[in-house]
Amino acid sequence: MGLLSNRVERSEIKAGDHIYTYRAVFAYSHHGIFVGGSKVVHFTPRHDANSSTETSANSYEEKYDLPSSCPTFPDCGFRQPNSGVVLTCLDCFLRNGSLYSFEYGVTPSVFLAKVRGGTCTTAMPDPPETVIHRAMYLLQNGFGNYDVFQNNCEDFALYCKTGLLIVERSGVGRSGQASSVVGAPLAALLSSPLKLLMPSPIGVATVTAGMYCMSRYATDIGVRSDVIKVAVEELAENLGWGEGGDKEEDNGVTDQLIVM
Predict the structure, then answer these.
(1) Can you tell me the distance from the alpha carbon of 44 to that of 178, in angstroms, rounded to the nearest whole number?
(2) How confident is the model at residue 56 (pLDDT cuts 50, 70, 90)?
(3) CA–CA dist 174, 151 (Å, integer)
(4) Is the pLDDT of residue 176 over 70?
(5) Mean of pLDDT over the chain
(6) How many Å separate Cα 242 from the centre of its chain?
(7) Most CB atoms closer than 10 Å: which of 88, 93, 135, 228?
(8) Which pLDDT does position 4 carry in this prediction?
(9) Could you tell me the strand order of the sheet in which 100-101 lies?
(10) How far is residue 185's CA from residue 211's CA, in Å, rounded to a whole number?
(11) pLDDT tens per residue, range 82-118
């Protein structure tokens, strides 16, 4: 894997790996945890058991309609009622897209060199067996309500790999994609006054790109100070999730998080 692409072959991935693929002509990426046996656990906008339609989710990951039947695996598409965590085969996860591997423990220089967010983190991963345990536990118990900026598929995979949870839920989540969406306009805004000092368009573009990368780095879970390690068995209690993985209203994170 290099600076421009984390693309891998199927034979290269191992159980417990964080994988992703691009959707809508590289407009965004969809993330999951490979659990072995050509199976992937990933997080999507949930299906309401009391409705035939999927609950609304922002256009970032708007449609994850699974095939009505999978010719390879009978249990492909398994999910608990009212849960967005789903088990599918690798083929259905990729949907004819290419396979990429998310990188962990990268150096700050490598992180900043990545042009696109949602491909790596400076945080270190936990052992594969711990990662798989978290993914399978959340498959049975849910991961709360899907939110494009605070609780999306990348957030799910990052939690499974690291066990890190953001204490304050009011800002951008762990997702590198979400921080990129926020960071790009912020960088452009902050660099605008510098146009008076930098008549060259190249200079302005360079400063904007630098601020964009720094804004992504500042929200990376490997350097943030508002993250804490939480056992997956205590995740619902700490976040105040109700039955079926829903977050109870006005609860947020409890004062005393149970640390793993």
Answers:
(1) 15
(2) very low
(3) 8
(4) no
(5) 77
(6) 22
(7) 135
(8) 62
(9) 85-89, 39-43, 28-36, 18-23, 100-101
(10) 10
(11) 999 999 999 999 999 999 999 999 999 998 888 788 8
Structural contact between residues 5 and 100, judged by C-beta atoms closer than 8 angstroms:
yes
Using DSSP's 3-state secondary structure scheme, residue 147 falls into: strand
Q: Which residues contact 141 (CB under 8 A, 6 or more apart)?
A: 80, 83, 236, 245
- CA 122 to centroid of chain Cα atoms: 15
146, 30 in Cβ contact below 8 A?
no
DSSP structure string for 175-190: -HHHHHHHHHHHHHHH
Interatomic CA distance for residues 53 and 67, integer angstroms: 15
To the question of pTM greater than 0.85 for the whole model, the response is no
Three-state secondary-structure class, residue 78: strand
CA distance 175 to 153: 8
Which residue, among 29, 168, 151, 148, has the nearest Cα to 95 in the 3D structure?
Answer: 29
Q: Which amino acid is at 34?
A: F
Q: Please say whether the dihedral angle defined by the alpha carbons of residues 110, 113, 115 and 117, taken in this order, is positive or negative.
A: positive
pLDDT in tens, 127-153: 999 999 999 999 999 999 998 888 899
With CA atoms as reference, report the closest residue to 140 among 230, 236, 259, 62: 236
SS3 content of the chain, % helix, strand, coil (to 5): 35, 15, 50
Sign of the CA dihedral running 132, 135, 118, 14: positive
| Residues carrying an active site annotation | 30, 42, 153
Residue 66's pLDDT is 57
**Confidence category of residue 8, pLDDT binned at 50, 70, 90:** very high
Query: What SS3 class is residue 38?
Result: coil
